[in-house]
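ingest -> validate -> predict -> emit
validate: passed (alphabet ok, no gaps, 202 aa)
predict: started
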Amino acid sequence: MLVFHCGNIDRVEVVLLYSGVCKVNAAIAAQLLIDCFAVDCIINAGTAGGIQEQVQLFDTVISERIAYHDVADDILTEFHPWMDSVYFYADENLLQSAKAYSNTTKRVILFGTMVSGEQFVTEENREQILTGFTPLCTDMETAAVAHVCYVNKLPFLAIRTITDTAEHKGIGEFEKNCAAASAISAEIVCALLPSFCGQLHN
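emit:
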């Protein structure tokens, strides 16, 4: 069962939870946050695998746009929610706060496209994903959370720190780097919370 933690971080009221792995679990968690806690926005934080060569271990990627890499395009454009494209876009105000913060930290923060799918990326499908979306990173949850936020018209942003790359690949690399990468992602979220709160309540 999901466990929700309610409290304050730097005088910002927050609700935290671990959604679990995969798109459905992430979507369930996001909708419960909206329905049960009436949150002002959702920040999806965690880890991801780097796709492009310039993305290195422990870099952090912040979403500008997000897509599924394993869902047919017309599922989103020809059926509910009848989108104009396959991309979900980050909230512009949250994104601008993150970009301003990136100029003040020594952490490497990159901004761009993220993709999500239900499996670890292999050599066979890496090139296909790169060609189709040109993403910086991939994970198993972000697009689903963005999807829920889009339907609910709720501001959304994703912050993901890299655990593995094409050079440093495999489940072993992910497991070795997951805790450290998660800590970096959490650090950045905590640093951004006051500015996020200001943007949402202006």
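The domain at 5-201 is CATH 3.40.50.1580 (Rossmann fold).
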